[in-house]
Amino acid sequence: MFNQAKADTELWADTVECGGERTPDMVTVKDACEAYAKERHCPIQEGILRRHVYSDAIAKVRLDKLRRHHLRSWRKRLEQAPALVSRNKKGVKRWKERAKSTVNRDMVPLRAALGQVLKPGAPNTDAAWQEALRPFKGADRRRELYLDKEERKRLIDAMRDDARPFVQGLCMLPLRPGALAALTVRDFDKRTRTLTIGKDKNGNPRQITVPPVIADFFAEQVKSKLPAAPIFARVGGEPWNKDAWKYPIKEAVNAARLPSAVAAYTLRHCVLTDLIRAGLPILTVAQLSGTSVAMIEKHYGHLVRDDAEEALASIAI
């Protein structure tokens, strides 16, 4: 469907430019998004499309009828939709105003899906569909909260028994919490000391080789577990998720007298910071963490510049 949708759209665009008319029915926005999601296999982007596109009026708009005003209206609805913060212990959902960075993130899959099948319209015309999906500038803020190794050790020691291995894993690898929680026993190969990261934000499985000290930690976690079992499990055997790990971490943060803003993602930031400080090339850090070089440079490039300045100062005569 994806290739056919792309071919149909390009043929329609070429026909219109030549003054002709397109007779066969054109696919809808939803069709293009479903084809894109099928190609990408990214659960996070699929979830965004389900919540904000498939249930919205824009899903039924045909691609040959899509104009900038359609997407402007959709974007306005997206900006006004409250963002889910979390659920409390009783399961009650809590909401907050959608941040610009969240809007930027939630526009990505729709913009990418349309970009696969539509040519950009002429600037400043209603055919310029892409203009309505431009991201807010300066919306993504650099993470500043950092825990040193001693503070992270205090956090681990304060964790309750079932959550301690999961948090210790977060302190060892630059993985997103959801990617670490999704690891199963079969994803770890003890002989080669490799981890296969299958479920992550970018949707592309990758392998990383870990040093013996981390391999020994994972070997202990997978002991006597079936291949399909989660490496890090709760008391009942279920894998961790953001609603389950939030409260144990919060309780340990308070017990260890750490800043109240510390969360699971803080630990990923700390590991990334340490890897950059250790002199690991940015490309390697990006590959380990499953993100782009551009994002690493944007959020951690200043650390490289600071180290370069210190190195230059050390050799001054």
Q: What value does the average pLDDT take?
A: 84
Q: Identify the overall geometry.
A: globular
CATH level 1 name of the largest domain = Mainly Alpha
CATH architecture of the largest domain: Orthogonal Bundle
What features would you highlight for this structure?
317 residues; mainly alpha; hpI Integrase, Chain A; three-stranded antiparallel beta sheet; two-stranded antiparallel ribbon; 13 helices
Protein model, in words:
With 317 residues, the protein is mainly alpha-helical. The chain has two domains: 132 residues, no CATH class; 166 residues, Orthogonal Bundle (hpI Integrase, Chain A). It is 51% helix and 6% strand. A three-stranded antiparallel beta sheet has the order 3-4-5, with helices on one face. Helix 2 packs across helix 5, helix 3 crosses helix 5 and helix 11 crosses helix 13. The longest helix is centred in the C-terminal third of the chain and has 22 residues. The chain is globular, with a radius of gyration of 23 Å.
Quickly describe the structure.
This protein is mostly helical. The protein has helices at 2-17, 29-40, 43-54, 68-80, 100-117, 149-158, 164-170, 177-181, 212-222, 242-255, 264-277, 282-289, 293-314, and strands at 83-87, 93-96, 188-189, 194-197, 206-209.
